[in-house]
Please model this.
Amino acid sequence: MKKIRKILVRGIAGIIIVLLIFSLSGCYSVQSIDDLTYVIALGIDKGKNNTLALTVQFTFPTSSESASGEAAPTIVNTVECASINSGITLLNSYTSKEINLSHCKIIVFSEELAVSGIGEEIFTLSNQVEIRPDSNIIISKSTAKEYIENSKPELENLVAKYYELNLFSQEYAGFTENISISNFFNKLNTTSIEPTAILGNGNKLNLPSSNNSKDELDIVAGELPITEYKRESENLGIAVFKDDKMVGELTAIETMLHLILTNNFESGIITLNHPLKENSTIDIALYSHKKTNIDAKLINGSPFATIEVFLNSRLLSVDKNSGDFDSDEIKELESLINSYLENAILNYLYKTSKEFESDIDGIGQSLLTKFKNSKEWNNYNWPQNYKNTFFKVHVNTNIKSSFLLSS
Amino acid sequence: MDNIKLGNFEAISLILIIIINHIILNFSKTIISATGSASALNILFIGIILLLFIELVIFLFKRFTRLDILDISSYLGGRILKTITGILFIGYYIVFASILLRTFCENLKIIYLDKLPITIIVIIFLITITYANKLGFKVISKVNMLFLPIILFCMIFVFIANIKNYNLSGLFPLLGYGPKTTFLLGLSNLFAFSSISILYFLPPMVNDNSFKKIARVSTILSILLFFIGIFSFLCLFSFLRNSEEIMALYLATRYIEFGRFFQRLDAVFLMIWTIGVISYLCIITALSMHIFKKITNIKNSSALVYCFSGIIYVITLIPKNIAQANYIEINIFKYVVFFLLFGYSLFVLIFANIKKISSQNVQISSKTQKHRKT
Model:
């Protein structure tokens, strides 16, 4: 009897296992890599006949077989749609493979759309499990479609790699910032700091000759003075948001100052008039030294922020007299850099407070610590009060040395 | 299970695995939504209260060596009270384990298994739980002890690896929604430490002298773990606090990256947490079976596992969606924990102690009367 029972139990267990193998292994509905097509860039414009125009850039499935040195081809499709999800569904019915967003490197919004608000789109994208939180968010001064179409890498074979590497110039140039969708979304959800996005342009501007009088670093995306180029898209500067609406843009030098204030600065170069030599300029490499200290408080109901910046610097322009700098001349040079940066930072901060009314540098995060509870903070309404802020900036720059020729 | 002896680390592991599961399954988010930026402060405050409560429980168990809450109920109110206590604890364990299982399965469905029906995902978990329970409680606790360090390491790793994303402004304003919410209404956050319910059943399973040590160490570690969890969530992205459904800890793993090469480590963590959830469910089922066995006096409880798995399966599928499961978790769980762990059980212990003291006094007085007569 026991033996029969044992056989019966084992038989039933065997049948269950076989059933489970076939029903749960998923072979009948398996989804392999061949069934998917990967989006590497997503562009969102205002639609002509519908709310949005969604542009997607796919990698060509056989790109790995392309000859070395030859850029891998990509496919760009655009669809007019009511929302991002409906756009992807419409594209899904067109493409022969299922669209997958898990390798999407950049999300591009047109400036036209960003000005009217992109909160809904950001929430939709952040809610997508497939979208990586580190996907970069770019606001294009041209249409997003133009930006994507004109992003033809010159030094890379793969567009995806180009998108990834392109923004690392923040580390050595400091004229743009590597801003991800999670970063944007996070700031969108707080009241103590406003969001920013990378400023791009997919249609390089033909600069009029009058623009030549502009300061070299007083430029934004599309104004980079490169005279010979193949690729028409570029990133330079930052798009400033108040809540989910774009309210302005930062130039190259303002971007560098923004990076310094938000502790994201690594290194960059500025050019000043030589204090000891007439009609001559001096190039100075700036390096991050210590974290910027922002102390904001309320004085008679008005916000007052004291900002202390700590930088190291090296002299890049040298001549045969550079080695003869004595300590007084070095100090004079340091105070020149300090006063230049103090003025530049003050102008920049008042631009963000008076013109943009948007606290993109997190002054509010310092002020927040002075409030006892959330009710007091909410009643104070920091986003509306930022425009009343007064600033005091103190820059401490240490000239370490120049490079090879003098120290 | 009465004959089972647990080592100190094994017993502490049982309590810690529950706390870890509570952190994984968004309890910290519930705390943050109640007390806002003051949640870390609130955890420290209720941590102190919890330690005092545990000292009280240790003191009340002092007169009942090697007896658990069921034995003490039996001593106080006979078989009826014992049965009531048993049913209350079984109901509490099974219902909330089922709800937590549903929450985790729904999260798995959202993240990876979007095409698999929820019923199948639940069944896969239940097959594992049933099989593990057939092997016995000792095996479950040993395996749990084996996996706990790995699960613990992974959780701490998530917080450390995200350190570059920390922003201390999340801790301000220091008093959150105000002192009343932080210190008075915030007391309801004690529900997060519901893992201490295991302590009520531990005395017969551990050495007489170890109980105090286990209770204190596990409570301190639980407070510490929750504090680290809450502190990290506050300092991490603000939207983690506002995410309605998905596990905040999973969202935090999506931000871990080491350079451009090591990215998207979330799948590894999800696999390890799945082991954690299975371990937790196995312990809860084994404990429920143990209680049932005690109140019904049945000799062989191994076949009970099928009944309990079936009950868990049914309860798991009762909520129509994850929002309903979350509602039960947040709004009902809190009060049930308060009633059962901090109210009912405490009263049983207090009255049992009073009965014991009075019976001892009666014994002493009768002895002295006898002594006088002689």
Remarks:
- Residues 8-356 of chain B form a domain with the Amino acid/polyamine transporter I fold (CATH 1.20.1740.10).
- The first strand of chain B starts at residue 257 and ends at 258.
